[in-house]
From TrEMBL:
Annotated protein name in UniProt: SIP domain-containing protein
Domain FAD-binding FR-type: from-to ranges: 14-117
GO molecular function terms listed in the Swiss-Prot or TrEMBL record: oxidoreductase activity
Species of provenance: Streptomyces lonarensis
Highest taxon of the lineage: Bacteria
InterPro entries per the UniProt record, alphabetical: FAD-bd_FR_type, FNR_nucleotide-bd, SIP_fam, SIP_rossman_dom
Membrane-crossing residue ranges in chain numbering: none
Pfam families associated with the record: SIP (PF04954)
PROSITE patterns named in the record: FAD_FR (PS51384)
Amino acid sequence: MARVPKFLADYSERRGFPARVTGREELSPSLFRITFQVPALRDRAHGPCDATAFRVAHNDFRHYTAERVESGSGTATVLFHRHPHEDAPGLRLVRELSSGDEVTWCGFGSGRTFRWPDPAPAAALAMGDTTTLGLLVNLTERAEQDGTRFLAVAEVEDDCVAATRELLPDAVVLTADERPGAAAAHWLVTEAAELLPDLAPRLVLLAGHGESVQRQRTLLREHHGLDRRLVRTQPYWATGRTGL
């Protein structure tokens, strides 16, 4: 999880990147974008799965994937999900941020098991929820740059559907119900039967709700016959547990 001993948290923060908030946009009742000026990101190589962490307590962090990074200017945007748990430490921190505020980006990168490969795959599929929209935007743009045939599938709350369709006009946008992952699982055993054989993904990235990610991986393997070695997973949150 995101908690570490305090001495490691102190060390991570000391090695972090100073950042300043330069803008904030409300995209829907449950979704907002914050723009950061992060000088350390200038001319720094980055990948679409790269994430940073904000310290939210003496031994606790929350991780967020960038939506876009402009290396030349050192500007980055992050999409944040305003979920119902108002007392969550990550949400408490970011919902109060406004232009001029300073925050430390504690690192920026991705794990070896969840990243965009080089060379890029011929075709790829990515699935996620409202917490992963920044990741899906970044992946979509990188796939276009690399000439990868790409399909994004996003399961989002009803009040985020319109905003998500603007962010991801070519994606499959599913309306979530009270059961996380149910809409995505239904799609995998219905409409996906026509889309996935034509796409023939050589990489599958699954992120978001942990239990849903595992269910999707199982369905892709058992229902669609995908090789499990093509699937990469990154849980962002889990029912009844703190975020990552």
